[in-house]
Amino acid sequence: MSRQVVRSSKFRHVFGQPAKADQCYEDVRVSQTTWDSGFCAVNPKFVALICEASGGGAFLVLPLGKTGRVDKNVPTVCGHTAPVLDIAWCPHNDNVIASGSEDCTVMVWEIPDGGLTLPLREPVVTLEGHTKRVGIVVWHPTAQNVLLSAGCDNVILVWDVGTGAAVLTLGSDVHPDTIYSVDWSRDGALICTSCRDKRVRIIEPRKGTVVAEKDRPHEGTRPVRAVFVSDGKILTTGFSRMSERQVALWDTKHLEEPLSLQELDTSSGVLLPFFDPDTNIVYLCGKGDSSIRYFEITSEAPFLHYLSMFSSKESQRGMGYMPKRGLEVNKCEIARFYKLHERRCEPIAMTVPRKSDLFQEDLYPPTAGPDAALTAEEWLGGRDAGPLLISLKDGYVPPKSRELRVNRGLDTGRRKTAPEASGTPSSDTVARLEEEMRKLQATVQELQQRLDRLEETVQAK
């Protein structure tokens, strides 16, 4: 009688633990827009989520510790004139967030420490170049102030936020139809895209060349998602011809056949993949699902190993994923998701059960830190570099000089779009304000004269 050997893995028993009610964000009105993005972005300081807004587009930014019921009059970021479709925090500055909208613009915002006290309507810089709605915004993982956006005009633009200019353009000759997803490689040298024409492409954005492509990675007609994983592989999620959801792993050098292809279920929601390069675990979250599946990727066949599934009663409207430096390492937390319900945001901690409360070095190898490895000019000049790694052994402490160093690049864009936003007002601004003051004084004098005449009339009667 043969015995089945169970594969040894330290992540076999990872389990999801939803936060208690007082640690959730209650009474938030999550956007009803039908778009396949996560609608939520998280970093060690803030949680941001796209919310319902009348007469434009808005998203909510809350300090991470401000849990409980959210006041209905809480200030939002509300500079867009149409619904917001995607948001992304800058990996090199925890106070900077980018948003893409149906109004065809990308805006970059700076959130003050402690959160907003007034509605934020003026972005640091507005990036205009798309002719249709912008549904994807992704920051470069290692180069400072480099932002990628993809619109429904089938164009990908790479921006230097410091100058507010589009420095690279991948036109509709590369993607002839709607772009479903874009993901940077770990060193930012390549991007991986999925498109409505049923092709997944690996692209060198600085040259504008397609390095490799795969036609129909999944046979179904529903949207495909693709992300880079470890060792030059990509992972895709899609649908079979019979509308069964699938996950597949591919070697970018040999895209003829997948390394692994697994069928999951017959739900209709698009699976959003989140990959953790430190543990080689990929998490699959479906919009409309009530579960999170997770798989471990290894270098030997069968390459993709199902670990487990976190299930809950309520379906998810969106999902945010916390960077590794925002986790509680003393509790062996290896991932944390922020699940959007219809009117609530619920943190879910993924934990490895360990008896010791000491730092577990095997669970927390050096991870990507908040410092950029390259400037925008160096990356555009052809240099590539992996992320600068930090140890989480003593916890994550953000450097004090961060905002000065990062914001110098952003100030250039601010000066281009709003000269009076910082520093001494220009002479034109002073003259305009003086003219407005004179008009106000004349109006006050006229109102006073009318009031005097009215009093005289009343006294005469």
UniProtKB/TrEMBL annotation:
InterPro entries: Coronin (IPR015505), DUF1899 (IPR015048), Trimer_CC (IPR015049), WD40/YVTN_repeat-like_dom_sf (IPR015943), WD40_repeat_CS (IPR019775), WD40_repeat_dom_sf (IPR036322), WD40_rpt (IPR001680). CDD domains: bZIP. Keywords: Acetylation, Actin-binding, Coiled coil, Cytoplasm, Cytoplasmic vesicle, Cytoskeleton, Membrane, Phosphoprotein, Repeat, Ubl conjugation, WD repeat. GO terms for molecular function: actin filament binding. Residues 430-457 form a coiled coil. PROSITE patterns: WD_REPEATS_1 (PS00678), WD_REPEATS_2 (PS50082), WD_REPEATS_REGION (PS50294). The keyword Magnesium does not apply. GO terms for biological process: actin filament organization; cell migration. Residues 405-429 are annotated as: Disordered. GO terms for cellular component: cell cortex; cytoskeleton; phagocytic vesicle membrane. It is found in: Cytoplasm, Cell cortex; Cytoplasm, Cytoskeleton; Cytoplasmic vesicle, Phagosome membrane. Residues 405-418 have a biased composition (Basic and acidic residues). Gene3D superfamilies: YVTN repeat-like/Quinoprotein amine dehydrogenase (2.130.10.10). It holds the Pfam family Trimer_CC. Its main location: cytoplasm. The keyword Coiled coil applies. WD repeats lie at residues 77-111, 127-169. Residues 4-68 form the DUF1899 domain. Binds actin. Belongs to the WD repeat coronin family. This is Coronin. It comes from Enhydra lutris kenyoni (northern sea otter). The gene is LOC111162311.
